[in-house]
Structures are given as structure tokens and as C-alpha cells.
């Protein structure tokens, strides 16, 4: 049985047990309603109604069928309402990828803003370094990531903020007297770095290649806090981006320069051009952008 309209006609007649009143409620003629009921009976292979004198009554088969038909119509109506809500981005789910630092500083407050207007959209977070996040977007593991892809044209992107490379110097380092730390001065210097795959590490490696210097790596870690703890104990220079350094408590870092210019990279919300995305995604991107803008205004005020 494929036509829910006929079921709706049957349930309406069964509720009022009067063809004339049922036709009026359905806004169709009584003759048209009778034809629809007859067509349904032919499809089912048994009668639905019988007349006992002037009174309309359900057959035994119809009594068995009525509660299930009513339940089916209720579920179909609920499904229609849910589909409409999904299409409008009011219901659904989103998977977002980001580094731990970005989750703490950007996504957490942005989700508070997003959930105020989209409380029925479920959001799951995936933590990882920059390269892993880009791969997740490419293969559909997440719907959106906060990352810095090399090939911007491969994704839909919304710029959020600019990350700048910073250096945390150990106590007593002569670099404390300078305003910035040139990458060119890092030849054979002991450095503390995030592991390969993080955007910060890419910035350091690319800058060192351009400057033709090779620092001495003392520690590679997933934790900015571990790097800074090593700095404070005098074991080297920690290199972190301004986004990775959020929440780190230490002495003020130095701006890292290459050829006298700051080392920077644009960080964006990215999502896959080739994949279908939830109708709620644009609203989430807007919340991320507004939160990033608000955070930038606070830090520059």
C-alpha cells in the first residue's frame, strides 16, 4: 500500500462514522470519498465498512487495521515535520575537527552561541593536528575543521583568524632584550617543538628551510604546556603559534621573524566542496566567525 491519502480517508471516516461529515472534514465531495474508500478496499481485498440499518460500522478486518493505520499516519506526519526541520537546519548532527587549543579558545564559546539558536542539532568534536584534520575533511570524517590547508581551492573556506609564530625564551636568554627573535638566529639553538602535522610545526620547518638554518630539537610534543614547562626549566626555546599558545601561562613570548617580517598563517573553517553538508553548517560557520571576531576585538582593544 503506497497511498497514505487513502489511509487518511479511512481513518477520518472511522473516527466520525459518517461519510457526509468525514467528507466535509476532508474538504472533498462525499462521492469522491466513497470512491477512495472503495479503491482502498479493492487494494486490501476486504471491506472496511458495513451498514447496520442506517448506521455505518467497521468490519472485523477494519477494527484490526484501524489502530495501526492511525499510528502509521502519526509517524508519517512526525517524519514530515522532522524532515522539514532537518531541511531548515533545526535538527541534525555536525562533526567538527580542531586542535585542542582551538577547541578550548574558539569552538567552546562558538558552540554556546550556536546552541542558543540550534538546540536540537547534535555536535561532536574530533581533536587532531592540522594535517589529520585536513584529511578528515577530505574523506568525510568531519563536516568541518578549523585548519590551514595548503591548497585553499580544494575546500570551501571561511577565514577566522591569523596565527603568528611566537618564541618562548628560557630565563636569562640574551634574546629577552630584543623585540623579536629572527629565525636566522636559531642555527644549532635548542628548540622545543610540537610534533609534525601541527600547523605550528609546519611554520617552524618552512621558516628554517627558507633561512637555511637547522636548530637542535630537544623535544617534540603534542602539548604546548609541556614545551613551556621545559622553557621555564631552562631547556630550550619553545616555538608556538599564537593560536596554540592561548591559555599558556608564562613570560611574554617574542614575535618570530623571517627576513625581518612576522611569520604568519591564515586559519580558516574548511569544509569539503564535493560533499553534501547539513543545512545547519552555515549557521555554525557564522557563529565561529563572530566568536573569532569578538576574540580579536578583545585582544586588540
From TrEMBL:
Keywords: DNA-binding, Transcription, Transcription regulation. It holds the Pfam family HTH_1. The keyword Transferase does not apply. Residues 1-59 form the HTH lysR-type domain. InterPro entries: LysR_HTH_N, LysR_subst-bd, WH-like_DNA-bd_sf, WH_DNA-bd_sf. Gene3D superfamilies: 3.40.190.290, Winged helix-like DNA-binding domain superfamily/Winged helix DNA-binding domain. Belongs to the LysR transcriptional regulatory family. This is LysR family transcriptional regulator.
Amino acid at each position: 500500500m503506497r497511498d497514505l491519502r487513502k489511509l487518511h480517508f479511512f481513518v477520518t471516516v472511522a473516527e466520525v462514522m459518517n461519510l457526509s461529515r468525514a467528507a466535509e472534514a476532508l474538504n472533498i465531495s462525499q462521492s469522491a470519498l466513497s470512491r477512495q474508500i472503495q479503491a482502498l478496499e479493492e487494494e486490501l481485498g476486504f471491506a472496511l465498512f458495513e451498514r447496520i440499518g442506517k448506521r455505518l460500522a467497521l468490519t472485523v478486518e477494519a477494527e484490526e487495521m484501524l489502530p495501526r493505520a492511525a499510528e502509521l499516519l502519526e509517524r508519517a506526519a512526525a517524519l514530515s515535520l522532522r524532515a522539514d526541520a532537518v531541511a531548515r537546519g533545526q535538527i541534525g548532527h555536525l562533526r567538527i575537527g580542531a586542535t585542542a587549543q582551538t577547541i578550548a579558545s574558539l569552538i567552546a564559546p562558538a558552540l554556546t552561541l550556536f546552541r542558543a539558536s540550534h538546540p536540537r542539532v547534535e555536535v561532536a568534536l574530533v581533536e587532531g593536528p592540522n594535517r589529520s584534520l585536513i584529511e578528515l575533511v577530505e574523506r568525510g570524517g568531519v563536516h568541518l575543521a578549523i585548519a590551514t590547508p595548503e591548497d585553499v581551492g580544494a575546500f570551501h573556506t571561511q577565514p577566522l583568524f591569523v596565527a603568528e609564530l611566537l618564541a618562548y625564551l628560557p630565563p636569562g636568554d640574551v634574546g629577552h632584550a630584543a623585540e623579536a627573535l629572527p629565525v636566522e638566529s636559531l642555527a644549532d639553538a635548542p628548540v622545543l617543538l610540537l610534533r609534525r602535522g601541527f600547523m605550528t610545526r609546519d611554520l617552524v620547518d618552512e621558516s628554517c628551510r627558507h633561512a637555511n638554518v637547522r636548530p637542535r630539537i630537544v623535544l617534540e610534543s603534542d602539548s604546548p604546556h609541556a614545551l613551556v614547562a621545559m622553557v621555564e626549566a631552562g631547556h630550550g626555546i619553545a616555538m608556538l603559534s599564537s593560536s596554540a599558545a592561548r591559555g599558556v601561562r608564562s613570560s611574554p613570548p617574542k614575535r618570530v621573524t623571517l627576513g625581518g617580517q612576522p611569520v604568519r598563517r591564515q586559519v580558516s573553517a574548511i569544509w569539503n566542496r564535493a560533499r553534501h553538508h547539513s543545512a545547519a553548517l552555515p549557521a555554525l560557520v557564522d557563529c565561529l566567525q563572530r566568536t573569532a571576531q569578538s576574540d580579536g576585538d578583545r585582544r586588540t582593544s
